[in-house]
Amino acid sequence: MAKYFDVHPDNPQRRTISSVADSIRSGALVAYPTDSCYALGCRLGSRDGIGRIRSIRNLDDRHHFTLVCQNFAQLGQFVHIDNDVFRAIKAATPGRYTFILPATREVPRQLLHPKKKTVGVRIPDHAVAQALLAELGEPLLSSTLLLPDEEEPMTQGWEIKERLDHVVDVVVDSGDCGTEPTTVIDFSGGELDIVRRGAGDTTRFE
């Protein structure tokens, strides 16, 4: 059974966040809130976590996982960014965007797109996610909590606990955080490509 934590959306309880971070360090798979839907997350190098996310979401090896980062300095350790892209991403973060970029050697091979050697990165604008990332001191390997054959993600922590009780280890509930996933922008091919129009405003990139 999954552990369930009720966390204040604006002022997350430090002791609770510390407990969740300890669970992640120990290999736990968590369902946690972001500024754009709930997400599944695990430690960066967790092969078991990656496998479980793939299984829950029925993902193939072409799926872009996302490294959810605390800040721009952390993000820069895991992807290659040229000056023009740097300015564009900097202006849009933190926010409801995922950026696909060429990965550095810091990114485990199993996370990379098999042909492009790219990975998704984002910096959320959400107090609970930010508190968790600060406590961890490293990115969370993440994927939107969208189940196979369903059009929208679940929005309630109690519902996630009920439905995924035996496939995740921790559920962090801070209330409804919406059903619209991030806007996904691919900078890896030399030209900007809006892959998915989601919660982030695309006009700044058009």
TrEMBL record:
It comes from the Bacteria. Residues 14-200 form the YrdC-like domain. Pfam families: Sua5_yciO_yrdC (PF01300). One of its GO terms (molecular function) is L-threonylcarbamoyladenylate synthase. Keywords: Nucleotidyltransferase, Transferase. The keyword Disulfide bond does not apply. The keyword Transferase applies. Its EC number is 2.7.7.87. InterPro entries: DHBP_synth_RibB-like_a/b_dom, Sua5-like_dom, SUA5_domain. This is L-threonylcarbamoyladenylate synthase. It comes from Streptomyces lateritius.
